[in-house]
UniProtKB/TrEMBL annotation, chains A, B:
CDD domains: PL-6
Molecular functions per Gene Ontology: lyase activity
Protein name as catalogued: Poly(Beta-D-mannuronate) lyase
Record keywords, A-Z: Lyase
Keyword Membrane: no
Species this protein is from: Maribacter caenipelagi
Pfam family membership, one: Chondroitinas_B
Classification via InterPro entries: PbH1, Pectin_lyas_fold, Pectin_lyase_fold/virulence, PL-6
Amino acid sequence: MKKYFLLLNSVFLLISCNEKSTSNAITVNDIIELNSAISNAKPGDDIVMANGDWKDVNIKFVAYGNEQKPITLRAETPGEVRITGTSDLKLAGEYLIVNGLHFTNGSSPSSAVIDFGISQDSVANHSKITNSAIIDFNKAQRNQTDLWVLFKGRHNELDHCYIAGKSNRGPTVRIDLAGNNSIKNYHKIINNYFGPRPPKGGPSAETIQLGNSFTSMAPSYTLVANNYFEHCNGEVEVISSKSNFNEFRNNVFYKSEGSLVTRHGNYCMIDGNIFIGDVDSEQIGGIRLIGTGHWVTNNYFYNLKGQTFRSPLAVMNGIPKSPLNRYLQVTDVVVANNSWVNCVSPWQFGVGSNTDQKDILPKSEIRSATPIRTIVANNLIYNDKGDKQPIITHDSVDGVSFKSNVINNQGMKFKDLDGLTQKDFGTTVTDGVILMPNSSLSDFELYNGFEFDQIKADLFGNSRTDNTMVGAVVGKPVNKKDMMDISQYGPDWYANTASKNEMNKTHSVSNVAEFTSAISDAISGDTIVLSAERYDINSSIKINKAITILAAKTDAKATIQYKGAAKTPAFEMNPKGQLTLKNVQLIGDNEQYAFASLKNNMSSLYNLTVLDCEISNFDYVLKAYKLSFSENITFKSTQIKNCANGLDLSEETDDKGEYNAENITIDNCLFDSVASNVVDYYRGGYDESTIGGNLIVTNSTFTNCGAKAEEGLLLNTYGIINVNLANNKFLNNNVQLVARLWGAKNNKASDNEITKSGKIIVEENLPLKLMY
Amino acid sequence: MKKYFLLLNSVFLLISCNEKSTSNAITVNDIIELNSAISNAKPGDDIVMANGDWKDVNIKFVAYGNEQKPITLRAETPGEVRITGTSDLKLAGEYLIVNGLHFTNGSSPSSAVIDFGISQDSVANHSKITNSAIIDFNKAQRNQTDLWVLFKGRHNELDHCYIAGKSNRGPTVRIDLAGNNSIKNYHKIINNYFGPRPPKGGPSAETIQLGNSFTSMAPSYTLVANNYFEHCNGEVEVISSKSNFNEFRNNVFYKSEGSLVTRHGNYCMIDGNIFIGDVDSEQIGGIRLIGTGHWVTNNYFYNLKGQTFRSPLAVMNGIPKSPLNRYLQVTDVVVANNSWVNCVSPWQFGVGSNTDQKDILPKSEIRSATPIRTIVANNLIYNDKGDKQPIITHDSVDGVSFKSNVINNQGMKFKDLDGLTQKDFGTTVTDGVILMPNSSLSDFELYNGFEFDQIKADLFGNSRTDNTMVGAVVGKPVNKKDMMDISQYGPDWYANTASKNEMNKTHSVSNVAEFTSAISDAISGDTIVLSAERYDINSSIKINKAITILAAKTDAKATIQYKGAAKTPAFEMNPKGQLTLKNVQLIGDNEQYAFASLKNNMSSLYNLTVLDCEISNFDYVLKAYKLSFSENITFKSTQIKNCANGLDLSEETDDKGEYNAENITIDNCLFDSVASNVVDYYRGGYDESTIGGNLIVTNSTFTNCGAKAEEGLLLNTYGIINVNLANNKFLNNNVQLVARLWGAKNNKASDNEITKSGKIIVEENLPLKLMY
């Protein structure tokens, strides 16, 4: 924020000789006054929205400022003007500034929360949204599409904003390039804090998308710089560049489950970004390259475990003469002076190669065109522990020139590669997790490729002229803020309001009335202890926050007997509901559900963890309705008995790549006498870039199950990408198949004992509907 | 040329304060001296090639000049250094100039005559070829591919050159964009004279091609300006732009049978060009648009009759999500301030629409995507005679905005179009064929679209600021040379040598000896008069120039009895052979051919005209071998009797769009007892942009023919695009079919009398091999 005022001041300073800077502040208290102020706005006007909630407002900020005298629409106090309810903001005109608004507790009635245009022909130029926030401003259901910031026009800016929590369909921020008035736009997305975006369970959940395939020939020249992306997990692409000449500089991708992808369009510059992973996650990616002429320089990759599509550097195979919306061949790409530290198999080439599927897929889906005229030079790989396979070549790399790259793999052998030299060098910490090689590499001769002289500085901006060195860093940062210092991202007011965390409590409840009121009173994160032995519940318990419910004694389960109506759940999982249920015996009378999502309006995801429980006599153990989504469903050390159906997450049958849960984990459980849908987990539509869901079933026993199973299939995992069945026992289940695994994907089974229960088969290529 | 020296002088002038301009002239007499001079060349060197023929030289001009001191390789006297034989010129380095060379009487041993590079990595930059010529420098056969000028690198130039006569496969001039060192090239192709390029009979005969589909995403920024294109008839594209941001300005396309086509790539500027047609030709096109963001402004179209792919303005349909090498949808295109004068149906939209073929072609070949976000504004159409259909919409034009266009159609009604106003205005001649409306239109209000303020000047450079007017011209040219004055194009020395035309003669020959020596002595254009009644010829008469042979008396035919070996022709058609045979009785003894091409090395086309003759007792009347090509084959008022085969032009069976003749005309002839291949004319391969050949058969009689016809088909025209059979008689031919016409193309039959000769059928969609 400060930076911005500094800039603005200097602009005013520059023009002060010629023009008197007169700010004409107009305070407005409601939409009528606001509309009037806007329609009368003159260059230099400063329209001030009074603090408070502005509910159900559709603001059309159409006005014409000029370079010297923009027109500002701002909060009386930044962050204290809350836009709520069914609200949106559209801008058109020239030199407009929006400052300090907070979109919360509502959703847009239109296709965008903030739109830099009101029609194809009427767009905003030279305008900016600054120091503002959009939080959880979700439409009611995840299939209802919108964007939170939609860029049109030219020379617009989103800066120092905080944006988090989008769970419905649609990229968070999108650049529209349809129409000559929106090309060569030189938009800037800078200094923002992109907070967590939960996984959506299917495509169209990018954090930033620049264009689309239909306009992917357009020159965009958008700058995405100095942003912080934290847990941006919406889908496999955090940033999806689909236009030309974009620049991505000095962004931090912190534990974000996706990659920066040059999906369509060409000639992008990806320079000086930091990608930080997590030892526990294989979902966090780096940079994935498709297309022509991209330059990838000075980037730093740390602790990344993602593979193939999500690998730290994924250079894809293309489709020969690709259709516009598929995969163009990689050509004329330069990857130079980057560093990979403690990443698993960080370089992968020919990613997406699927020539083995040429008999079952149409020719226009076969990615057989390997990268050509591509240079990988002067890069650094450093591993604390040796990596068996630092480079994976999924297809030929004949078209890639490797030059003057260095690896310290702690002496561990791997398949050699010309142009990648093994060296035993030490490292120096330059800043936080950022390492550089010590001086032992300083005389290693670098490759000087065409226009490599343009790589003038390192990740920190240090000159490379006198300090040649492989990797992203040649020295410590000088006069530069630590990129990991999050205070420099987003609005200056947001950190304060976000820190008002209340203290969590434990509620001990000895009867149903206390239980019910505790559920209602609890704040997110609280624990409810069941001190009685038994609770007879007559209506669903609504879970819309993080709640842990557990028995008072660790050695005896509390009993919850659910006596509600048929087809209602004991626990109703609402958006943002996160239930941990521990040490409870949960009993129905065969007509109800133990757990279920809402049937409609699942605007955000829910999570469910069941530990050390017994669940019996339900129609469904878990019923996930269409459009509901859970990131994590976990059953551990739990017995499930005498239920008509088990875990049913199979309602997304539109075959568009959507599914009902990201991760399902079943460990050390017993399923006894569950008649059908023991586990029914479905994902439809051939879409190679959707790489969920994930099912793990381990150390569990299934017996007398599947009597009414559809297709005689005990565990139905149709279209799920990652499945692992290990160390289970399947005893006396009257089914033909325990499971049908998808051989072409990451499905596996091991060490299972199967007795009188059919078998596990592997089908190499499932017939799936093509999505494109 | 003068302009260039002026420029160079001024550069020298500018630097004269700092550096002394020292020209170091080094005269070289052979390739050894030349190589030595090149390898020792220093900035400022002026290497002078001695006048004369330089045969079989492979010049590698690799040197490094600088901006102030380029290195020059020049002819002692411009035009007097002839590069002949198996020769080529490759350049690499910086600031090189080649001046005054004449490539003639030879061909390149490599893939280019002049190449701005010696390898992928070693290219020329800031270099130019000036004041030079490449004439008839053809490889031996038309399937042997080369380029005459191949651009690589950046900032190179071809200026004031004369280039004509290419008949082998490959564009005349090509820009290569593979590799980062060849993008953003800012090459200039300026002030050249592109002389006649004969039709090739199939694809790959562009005069200029900028890139290819594989590199069509590359930014090129090539300028093609102030060139004259005369009879550039190689194929359907005179200029094929296949990259981005190219500019085509102030070129003249004079009776060139093709169009300026934005085939791949986007955002091209086509401004101020003149397209001049011919009342007699439907082959001459204008501008054909594919792709995104092109601006077409200030162009003048005169007397054009081309239709669909060749229409004066052809806005194509695209293929949805087109493969890289097919047809991208037209989007965001602007067509403004152009003039069409006396053109037939000048505006055609949705060209190439083939949704009616969706059942027989793969989805990836169906052009169903109509133009969108396209603006056609402020244009002028003027017709001396009313046009029934000035605008043809082959598909929906819902995505095109027509604004403030004006037509004077002399009151003739046509289907109305919003945004095209009929006005009865007069015209003023501004220059040659260039008209503008008179003042009656001066108050017509123009449309002001996005960035229309960038259309600052008219075709002649007159400012549009104070003079708003529809069409390409707002006033007479001021201080500007007439664009039709050809003296400003090409080398200054070429016009002189070209004017050395010898006078044509008539040779009267009374015996075979005289006949034979006349054939040998004649120069192109001469006539040989057969004064005897009969000539017995024992070996083939070689025709390698334009020769007319006719009987002395108009009322009695001379007889030529051909007694040569079996399978040899009476007349052997060589490259550039043009035979007119009139009033001759040509007789064989059943084993020979009357006319045939060479079997090999048909480096250029031949033409054959047969008038008032009788041809009998041959194995073949005309045998066209593979790779031979004729532009015109005409038989008029001629009787053909007792031959095993007729006209056989069916050897191009590779199905790559090639064919053996462009135009075949048979009028007022008799075919009697021709057993097979009466007419066998073949073109294979589905390629919608190849729009030949052409067969016209009129007023002729076919009797007792086809006894041994393949498939029982009398006239085989498989794959020929334009066929017209009219007013013929087919009597007593023992065949099943007279002809099988191609309904989807321009095949038609009318007023034919058919007796005991099978029938004519129409097949809507021929099964053809897909070429792409």
